[in-house]
Amino acid sequence: MLKPYQVYNTHSLSLCYNDYLLLQLLLCFWSSLFSLCLSLARNTKKILYLLQVAHKNSSMAKSICFCLQKLVFFILLSAIVSHARPPQVLPRQEPSYLKFVFNATDLPSEDYYDYIVVGGGTAGCPLAASLSHTFRVLLLERGGIAYGKANLMTQDGFLSTLVEVNAFDSPAQAFTSEDGVPNARGRVLGGSSAINAGFYSRADMDFYKNSGINWDLKLVNESYDWVERAIVFRPELKNWQSAVRDGLLEAGVDPYNGFSLDHIPGTKIGGSTFDSFGRRHSAADLLLYARAANIRVGVYASVERVLLASTTPFSGSRQSAIGVVFRDSNGRYHHAMVRRHGEVILSAGAIGSPQLLLLSGVGPRPQLSAWGIPVARHSPYVGQFLYDNPRNGISIVPSIPLEHSLIQVVGITEDGAYIEAASNIIPFASPARSVFIHTPSSPLYLTVATLMEKIVGPVSSGSLRLGSLDVRVNPIIRFNYFNNPVDVRRCVNGTRKLAGVLRSRSMEDFKFRDWFGNRDFRFVGPALPVNQTDEDQMADFCRRTVSTIWHYHGGCVVGKVVDGDFMVMGMNGLRVVDGSVFGVSPGTNPQATLMMMGRYVGMKIIRDRLRYS
Ligand SMILES: Cc1cc2nc3c(=O)[nH]c(=O)nc-3n(C[C@H](O)[C@H](O)[C@H](O)COP(=O)(O)OP(=O)(O)OC[C@H]3O[C@@H](n4cnc5c(N)ncnc54)[C@H](O)[C@@H]3O)c2cc1C
User: Where is the Glucose-methanol-choline oxidoreductase N-terminal domain (predicted)?
Assistant: First the structure.
């Protein structure tokens, strides 16, 4: 009998940052009130004596009355404050899918399944949940679970999750591409959807036309609906996001499309996977749809390679995926094997899936041979056509307090630029120790507001190659940002739009006034070029300030590595279903499309197998 995964690190309560402050204030207040009452009780004799004296002395009577009035006022105020806004403590119920989640150490050393899904991420969770309705499914995830970890479970923990990283087990795995741009990938159940900024928007129509997949649009819409019913919310805009919406409209990014999950030109409020309490919902929550009796989820299960075998004894015949080898956190190896007509499906993401194909002997022959990996199939494009949408923008310290917000409002221009905004409260450490301030015991916090743009596409592409035979080590990655002039032109156009937003009336409130009464922004990092008509200066800004928006994709692109049914070309029983198959980005942020795709492929497999059996 297998023992379900235990959550050792559970916080039964978790608080938003603001609620935490409010709670601190209330605690302070109540404790002062308590000590006041205590000292009143201790000094009852003295007070009675004072009251007797006061009876004879009217000025003392007045001051005692004043003190008592103050006490009553404090009691009333506290009652009002605690009643008006109780601290929002976020209760956490243990998700019911945990009953079929197991630490890989508790999984058998060999077992058989109809479908083995590698990677419990954005596409992998909905895929496994859907398949479990008809088949016996194993979902293997190298990370742990988010439940019980406050930073992962709340919007306010977004930056901490990205900063608190280590080589082998942090929920975010950091990597830096050869372009010098720091990046991150999810390593936790829910994948990158469990560490991302939560913005949710369906793909644009061009994606369905150009992705190389013959989409059944009815099933596409049903699959989106399935996802949205469970984990998508309408965000509530506060000051920064509202100002950006107004600024975009003033800058001509119109019409205003209100709240919409569709990717349409103009300005809109998109969906969010954070609910109104700031709690994160991720692809892991789609496991709630699974049929518990048919599914096992193994966490801390690092898949090392896909097991391949020839289907016929003739040399040169097609190889089939017959299972996978994975390693648990004690270093013990396990074999998961597929039953007849079963499949291995890689959903390990745009970095993980090409890496696993290479480690399994599917990839460019020279690279495999150089690492001593037996070549199962020479597939020259594994790891090629890897893209990352460049992000450029500005950050300011605003002159007024701002809320903490991740992406909620977006501006979609016709010429390939896409504008988003965020505002973050970040800990601030002075580089030099001040002579006046001793090392502060608690950190100082600073609000930084950001306006950014990503370009559609991109056209520039890079590649990935093995850097180690250890699957836990990131491959070597290069994105070649702005290699293609089309991308530079789009970035310049987008940057000019950002300048338009900064010039809008809506942004005035965030400027500081100098000694002479002039108002201007306080930039953190580079400001936009002064002469925005100068093409070269603008292009230089794009190249100099490039960072990632984490929408990297490709590496097992449709038509190059997989066919229109996501099957690895030239192989049997092996598919790839995740962001690595995208040769074109979904226009918008990709998580909605990936979750839809997981559900979509699961339903397609079930329908096709029923049709042909
Ligand atoms: C910081 C950040 C912010 C983002 N913000 C947004 C946003 O606001 N909106 C949006 O739409 N998109 C956003 N994205 C992008 C989006 O989250 C990703 O594109 C998407 O989640 C990728 O999905 P995937 O299924 O391809 O891969 P993932 O979700 O990354 O899933 C891959 C899974 O496979 C596992 N895995 C890998 N290798 C192995 C192995 N060998 N064995 C076992 N398991 C393995 C990984 O641990 C991971 O869980 C963001 C991404 C990041 C990183």
Answer: 349-363
